[in-house]
Amino acid sequence: MANTILGKSKKTDKKEKPVARDYVKLRQRFSSLMQKRQRYEKVWKDIKQYELPHIGIFDDEEDLAKNKTGKIYNSTTWEACQIFAAGVMSGLTPPSRQWFNLTMDNAQMAANSDVAKILDERQQILQAVLAKSNFYTTAFSCYTELPYGQAPMGIFTDPKYGVRYVPYTIGTYALEAGANGEISTFARRFRMTASQLVEQFGTDNCPLNVINAFKSSSSYNQTFIVNWLVEPNSERTIGEIGRSNMPYRSVYWVEGQETDRALYDGGFEEFPVPVARYTVVGHEAYGKGAAWFALDDARMLQKLEYDHLMAIELGVKPPMQAPSGIMGQVNLFPGGITESDTGEMVKPLFDVRLDTASLMNKIRETEDRIKRFYSADLFMMIDQIEGGQMTAREVMERSQEKLQQLGPVVERLLSEWLNPIIERTYNILDRAGIFPELPDELAQELADADVKIEYISPLAQAQKMSSLTNIEQLLGFVANAAQFDQSILGKLDLVQAVNIYASSLGAPAPMLKSDEEFQQALQAQQQAQQQAQEQQQAMQMAQAAPQMAQAAKVATEAANDGNPALQEWLGM
Question: Residue 565 pLDDT > 60, yes or no?
């Protein structure tokens, strides 16, 4: 996270310096991005046809109410997609529990209780904004899109909730990655009605035909194709302010209208459309997800299911043969009677003996493979416990294996998607002055500090379990070795072990004292123990004083009686 995350955005009295845009060049770049994505469109359309018919908009489609399930005879892929999305939702960004923490990258500074309290307070504000806004519904939409390979989410300021999140479906956008492999350019092609265009951009910025459609009652809801391009602002002047000098430029225009003007020309401080990607090859912008890997099986599943339905129908209603004289008079209803004067029978054209059991076994095998591709078997293991098919121990062991397979996907989602989402949300709230002011003594100390996001969701925690196991095994080994040699305990720094373990678990900061507070408490405890020992010794001496005085008196009297040994010992 940027090191300015704890600082307020500074106000300035500088006037905005406008930047001249080459809109022709921008439109050419937009067209190039749309043309480049065509290599992926064929696979996306096949996925929509055979796996996920309810996701995606292609070829400027207007009638979204039209049923797209013409080639779907078995809905296993859709069910697996929903299970995958729900599993990732509850495992990565669960709405019902805290799933991330803010901490300092510097361990010593992270141990500072004052800093930890400030970060906890800001984390709670972030969590409240996410819960109040539409973040979780948008996140679930993105998870359902992720089997295509990628799922973008737009993040914008909102006057009602502070922050608004927007999902973008496959077929409406194009992407491009920067030199570091991260998505830095987003292009979107979508439809808006005349009334929506006027409401969002104003009549002064809309083309004449849009304004005429808006004023006409008959074409009030006429749709227009709108293009939107977000990319790094290579024309900005560093140090200058204003929306046209921001790190990322954002330009809207109506397709087919004037090339020297735009609906809106602005920018963003951060890239506003983080993109979740499943797995990526090289520096490709587009990813490949579970639906890519399951596509061949999905095609086969639909064919097998179609054949199975056809076999059942042939068995129930086989083709019939009858004498030519009664053709058209054959009664095919159960119990129906067909009269024939020729004495010939009405009977099936051929003997239908179909092995539907083998066909069903093949269908189940294909369904199971698809579920594994979507990791639906992982997220449904709890059902296998309740059904008595597996023990809890077996589920735990298999879950660990599956989570290791999901590990690279989870790590990519954390670094490429959730990190930018939290950072941009934080910065929007920070620029709006939502967070309380920092104390002066901490503001200077944190000016150059880096804030780190730690994830404590179930899936993120599962990736850390291996490190916790290592700590536990080491402590167990040392405890056993100490039975033979107590000095080995001095090899361990138990204070740091507790800090690392708590950090890996994502325990709340107030649960642990800082190292300074712990040392102070330890010193106070040692001093209290020393004082208690001194008081006990003084009490023992006070109790023994009368006996010692009596013994001294007896010895003196014996010496006075002429005992030479006692006289010499007492110095008499």
Answer: no
